[in-house]
Amino acid sequence: LELIASGDCIQGVTIEVIDGDIDSDYQWYLNDVVIPGATSNPLIVTNALADGEYKVRVTDAPGCEIFDSIVVDIDENILVVNGLVGDINCSLEDIGSINISTNSNNQPLIFDWNSGNTSGFIDGLPAGAYQVTVTDANGCVGSNSFTVISTPPVEVTASFTEITCTNPTSNITISILNGSPTFDFLWSDGTTGTSLTNVEAGQYNVTVSDANGCSDQTTVVIPENNILNIIPIFDTMICASNEAFVLPELSSNGLIGFWNPPAINPEDMINNEFVSIWNPIDPLSTCVTDFQVTFLIQQPTPLSFDLPDSLCLNTGIYNLPTTSLEGISGQWNISNINTDTQQAGTINLTFTPTEFCVEGFNDSLEIKEQKTPIFNIKTDLCKSEPVFVLPTTSLEGITGSWSQPIIDPSIINSGFISTFIPSNDYQPCYLPVNAVFQISSTIIPTFDFPLVVCASDAPMIFPTISKNGITGTWTIDTIDFAFIDTSFVMNTFKPSNIGCEESVDVTITIVKLEKPSLITNHPTDCNKADGSIKLSGSVTDNEFSIDRISWQSNPIFDNLTSGRFIIFQRSILNTSCTDSIQVDLVSPSNPQILALDVSDISSCKESNGTVICNAEGENLEYSINGLTWQQSPVFENLGPIMYTMQVRN
Fold it and tell me: What string of H, E and C letters represents the secondary structure of 412-443?
């Protein structure tokens, strides 16, 4: 086989098998890798396939195969880049442009400018150097550099001298800004010089061109002026507070004359206007007219500021206002006051206005120390203390209000805070003050002595220390109830410490058992239990017993037989208060002891005592121990002891 390659990056490269059989099959390879779809002859190579070794396999109809290869090296840098540059002529604006053309139609074309642009035509460019790289669709690359040149415009101005009665002609002078020398001049009168001299009043045009062909023109109009006018060098508006001054004889354009009147004293002005006339001095009198000036007298504007009367130390920086309430600006002798570094005292202030005819302003400001109002308020409270109102005036006379003006110890907790806010008159330098209340619970002394006693009890000595440890004194330290006429007695305990310990009043009830009156109903017979005993009198709040075992509130005992009974009574208020009374019930046939005759023993060593019982009744028996009975009423040989004589039927 014979392989040939022809073409370039832009047109593409063609690889062809010379004298190849059209009936054969072809398969192309790049660097031994099958090129998909490359099965014809010739093979068109673009940049997409890139450089390398191209191999072909040719298979004829009988199936015979043969291989051959060729190395292809494609030169990519053959793209030619041209550009049409639009320079900046006679302008200071950025109006430059560059239009790019290439020798490749393989679209799209990619433009990469050093200025960041990405198109083939760029404009709005300032003067400078620009470089572009162009890449076509086949990957062919070319680059070029271009320069945008700027030629500045010509700017022309003109000045002239004034025509007066002493200078009848004028001179015109031209000034040129920018442009490139040399310059050509063309005046409207046909002259070509750089200036015009000794020209009369009128209009003159001039055109100036530079070496680059840039040009500009200007027009000068010279007025006729045969009469000189003076130009005063003072203001015609005068403040009434100004000092007197003399009007100047020399005007600002060099003319000399005199004023009538020559001086002004604003204080002497009755009206708000003042007229003075300026007269020229020869030889100017022929070309200068008199000049009349009307001066207006303005009354000075008074100033006012909303300044505090005082400032407090350590409250930061206070900046003085640079504008008055009337909107007048100016400066103070000091711009601000730093209360953190300033000492207490008076500061004198002066405001100097920057505007015309405004009065100055003087004031003073007091720097005061910060103080805290002082109150004499009890803050350690007991919950039992009464409600009270906090004072609205401090000890030094500072008035204000409290955040919580009414203090009720029974409902607030310990640590409760009420804040005093001084009123506006004292607010700047008197600080708010907190009253912190500590609330303690009320302590009531307790005692364990009885509140109900018997009149027969021993005198009570009241304790000086309560059961819960509170020390104090009693109104009566010892009470002997036997000497109390009333049914109760009151005593008061006062704690020694003044705090939340409360005084205690105690009332002690005194039980006095009085002997009751008796109403007895004797049994109708000694064998019958139909007797009764009734107690009457002061028996309220008492209970009664006949055996000291069972007690009853009813003062009546019935169904009793004859005999001796002991009735007990006690107070239901204090059951230790007791008393008793002996009652005998008898029946008509019941024996009754009339008397006992007792003979004591003669000595402690003898048992020779005798008891003789004198009694009434029938068939009587006698006993001194309740066990043995005898018919004789005489009992002899008795020892020293107590005997109970009993008689029975």
Answer: CCCCEEEEEEECCCCCCCECCEEEEEEEECCE
Beta strands 257-260 and 245-246 are unpaired
pLDDT score of 182 more than 80 = yes
Rounded Cα distance between 141 and 316, Å, is 72
Give the model confidence (pLDDT) of 53-68 as tens digits: 889 898 888 888 888 8
Do 367 and 310 meet the contact criterion of CB atoms below 8 Å apart? yes
Question: Which residue's entry shows tokens 């309560």?
Answer: 466
Candidates 247, 266, 184, 250; CA nearest to 217 is: 184
Give yes or no for a contact between 136 and 79, defined as CB atoms under 8 angstroms apart: yes
Residue 563 pLDDT > 60: yes
pLDDT at residue 231, as a whole number: 61
Q: How far apart are CA 54 and CA 28, in angstroms?
A: 7
CA angle, residues 203, 204, 208, in degrees to nearest 5: 155
Q: Can you tell me the distance from the alpha carbon of 584 to that of 332, in angstroms, rounded to the nearest whole number?
A: 122
Residue 285, φ and ψ in degrees, nearest 5: -65, -20
User: Of residues 506 and 234, which shows the higher confidence score?
Assistant: 506
Q: Reduced to 3 states, what is the DSSP secondary structure of residue 39? A: coil
DSSP 264-300: E-GGG-SSSEEEEEEEEPTTGGGTB--EEEEEEEEPP
Q: Return d(Cα 502, Cα 582) in angstroms, integer.
A: 50
Gap between the Cα atoms of 96 and 122, Å rounded: 9
**DSSP three-state, residue 284:** helix
Tens-place pLDDT, residues 66-125 = 888 889 887 778 889 999 998 888 887 888 999 999 988 888 999 999 999 999 999 999
Element (H, E) at 135: strand 128-135
pLDDT band at 334 (very low <50, low <70, confident <90, very high): very high
Residue 3: CA count within 13 A, CB half-sphere: 22
Given a cut of 60, is residue 242 above it in pLDDT? yes
Distance CA 374, CA 230 (A): 76
Quickly count: other Cβ atoms within 10 Å of residue 134's Cβ.
21
- Residue appearing with tokens 């409902």: 411
What span, in angstroms and rounded, lies between the C-alpha atoms of 369 and 343? Answer: 9
Contact between 44 and 138 under an 8 Å Cβ cutoff? The reply is no
DSSP letters spanning 356-421: SSB--EEEEEEEE--B--------EEETTSPPEE--SB-TT--BEEESS-EE-TTTPPTTEEEEEE
Confirm whether pTM is higher than 0.70: no
User: What is residue 508's predicted lDDT score, i.e. its pLDDT?
Assistant: 93
Residues near 223 by beta carbon (within 8 Å), at least 6 away in sequence = 163, 201
Q: Is 612 helix (H, G, I), strand (E, B) or coil?
A: strand
Q: What is the mean pLDDT of the chain?
A: 87
